[in-house]
Each structure stands twice: as C-alpha cells, then as structure tokens.
Amino acid sequence: MKPKLHWSLKESWRRMIESIAPILQIVLGASSGYAIAHFGLGHAIPLLAVTVTITALGFSRDARPRRVLQTAVGMVLGIALSEIMLQVLGPGIWQIAVVLSIALLGARFISGSATFALTVGLQAVLVQMLPAPEGGVFVRSIDGLIGGLTALAVTALIPRDPRGLARTDAGRLFDVFLDSLDALKLALRDVNLEVADDTLRQVRRTQPLVDNWRLSLDSAISIARISPFLRKYRDELIGQVRLMRGMDLATRNLRVVVRRVDFLIRDNQPRPYLADLMEQIADATRVLARGIAEPELLGDAQEMLVAVIQQLDPKRHGIADQVREASVLLLLRPLLVDLLCASGMREEDARAELPAI
C-alpha cells in the first residue's frame, strides 16, 4: 500500500509567509551582486556573482553571518580552485572528475552540510563546462567574491527579522508545553488514560522545537552584533536566551512528569489536587510566555510560580507514605525550579523556595 501524501494548505501558507523576508533579501542581494559585477566591472554574464549570493543567503534558519561567510568562502575557493585546475589540466571529462572530487572533498572538510558540498561541486563543474568569459582567468572568481561580499552586506544592512522568528519559535514551544499541562490536568481529574498517552507522544516530539528556538536566537544575536539596525535589541535577545535555556530544562522535566502521570492514573483514581497544581503551573507559564514580548510580566510569572512551588510538599497533601503518588509531586519540584530560572530568578534562590521534605 502506498503511503498517503499529506498536504496542508495552512502549513503551505505559513511557510510562504515566513519566506517573504528571506526572499526579499535574496532578490535584493542577487540583483545587487549582478549590478556590481555587470555594470561596475563590465562582466558580461556574472553568473557566479548571482549564484554565490543566492546560495550564501539561502532559506536556512541559521542566518548567522559566520554561516553566510563560511558558505561564501567555500564557494569562492571552489571556483578559484576550479579555474586554476582548468588552466593547468585543461577541459575534458577526466579533468571534470578530478576537479569535482577535489571540490567535494574540500567542501566536506569545511562544512558538515551535504547541501553545501553539492553546491560547491556544482560551482566547480560550472567553471569547467561554461565558456571562458572575457577579461582574464579569474573573472569568475571575482564574481564569486562579489557574491560573497554582497551576501554579507545584505545580512548586515538588510537583515531578516530574527527577533520575529525567535518569538515564533518560542511561541510554538510554549503552545505544546501549555497544551501538555492542560492535558495532564484533564487526565488527572478524569482519569483519562488516552489523553495521557497522547500527551506523552506529544512531549516526546518537543526537542526540535527547542533546537529551532535556540538556533533562531543564536542567529538573531549574531546578526545584531554586526547590523546597525538590530544592535539595540542585543540585550533583549540575550535575555531571551536565559528564558530559552530554562524552558529547555523545564520541557525535559515535563516529559518525565508526563511519563509518571501516565503510569500513575492506571489505578483509575482521580487526583483533583494534582490537576489543580497543573492548572496553576499552566496559568503561570502563560504569563511567562507573554513575558517574551512584555518583559515586565516576568515578575508576575515569578510570583505565580513561587506560589506553586511552595505547595510541593507530599505531607501537605497527605501522601507522604504513598510513593507512587508522591513521586509526581517530587518530580514537579525541578520543573518549577527550571520555570523560575526561565523567569529570571537565580537557581539557588529558586531552590530556596522549595518546601523542606
């Protein structure tokens, strides 16, 4: 049986909207690279100035200047090497094989990206196969250099919206985190094993969301270091790194909590007090999520989380001698510490809020 093809109009539309900024950046960069090489230097067909610009900018979530520079340098070196080999060995089938082999090996040495290696190999083959341009041996290398420099200039002067992408990635993680807490509340209150199982499958797929948020933040901070238009946001972005790290740890602990709850409710006993705790944690986390755009709310989230963490004592709920049930309460303690750290509290201060057991 053939696997069903899954296509989502909503997902396609979202992907297209998110691509508008990089598309504009690529179009402006490629047009600028062409104009500089063609009108400025008189190169008749500056193909490589355009292709290097497009490839160096690309659609990658990793828009760090270092990644752009690495791509551009690798491609320019591949072009220059190919031109040298063309002068030494001349054109031909075996020469193409030799140059392509060297280009691919060098690209794999420079970067672990398979796409990057294939792109460098393609540039090297183009140099071998296309007619030599007028103006000298290294005209195409100059075009490639123009493309690389143009890509770097565009990254700094016409940056994408890395803050927006980081916030979007953060929002996706918070949505799953909050959905999971709401589901746990339902599972504990109604002893719904199906909901608990679905939640367990959901939280096991959260790591890519954390990784995307981390990568978009790294890109945003790197761009802010060189872009005069984004430099004022560096402190905001660095503060978001603290929030991301806290949520990363909290999400890992949430997976453990969900597994324990999934095991606990198999005795068909409702736990309304645990459901209430999940609701309180979710309410505080919603405020924490709003703190990304409104930092003044982080203090409110912190107060709400402190009120929850002080309830995490098995004796308070009369379950000190019930190991299976008390274990859920104890697993919530590191989760709350991580959420407090995400809100800006120091770890030692967060741990100090834990009730003695």
Characteristics:
357 residues, mainly alpha, Methane Monooxygenase Hydroxylase, Chain G, domain 1, 2 domains
Describe this structure in words.
The protein is mostly helical. It has 2 domains: 22-157; 162-352, Methane Monooxygenase Hydroxylase, Chain G, domain 1 (Up-down Bundle), CATH 1.20.58. Helix content is 75%, strand content 0%. The protein contains 15 helices and no strands. The chain has helices spanning 9-18, 20-40, 47-57, 65-89, 93-110, 114-129, 139-157, 162-190, 193-203, 207-226, 234-264, 272-290, 298-309, 323-342, 347-352. Helix 2 (20-40) crosses helix 7 (139-157) and helix 5 packs antiparallel against helix 6 (114-129). The longest helix is centred in the C-terminal third of the chain and has 31 residues, at 234-264.
Class based on secondary structure composition and strand pairing: mainly alpha
Task: State mean pLDDT (0 to 100 scale).
Answer: 87
Summed up, the helix count is 15
What's the N-to-C terminus distance? 57 Å
Task: Tell me the strand percentage band.
Answer: under 5%
CATH class of the largest domain: Mainly Alpha
Would you identify the regions where 5 or more consecutive residues have pLDDT less than 50? none
Beta-strand segment tally: 0
Please compute the radius of gyration using only Cα atoms: 27 Å
CATH topology title of the largest domain: Methane Monooxygenase Hydroxylase, Chain G, domain 1
The geometry reads as elongated
How many domains comprise the coordinates?
Answer: 2
The CATH architecture of the largest domain can be named as Up-down Bundle
**What is the helix/strand order?**
HHHHHHHHHHHHHHH
Helix content: over 70%
Major sheet details: none
